[in-house]
Amino acid sequence: MNDNDDQMEPTVYVVVGRVWNDEGGNPDTAIPVHAMLTAADDDDAVRKTLEALAGQGYVEAELDQIGVIDGEPDEPVYEGAYQDALAGNVAVIAFNS
What we know:
The chain is an alpha+beta fold. It is 26% helix and 32% strand.
């Protein structure tokens, strides 16, 4: 029997941070964000996240935490983002007030 036939799920990272629409933003104007994506390693995940945030027009970003998602999330806000990440996209969830 060959174990190579078992498909391994890609590693899905979650990156937590804050972004700003303007330079020199202060903590009061920060927008909390979570990003979900697949990446080769932590460094790749950080790079892809920063590129995606810049692509969405954010001028500054501070990334506070990075982790690995173990299985599909139960919370509805993350279900679509998880599927986007599995499809190879960087899913950014911005918690605008």
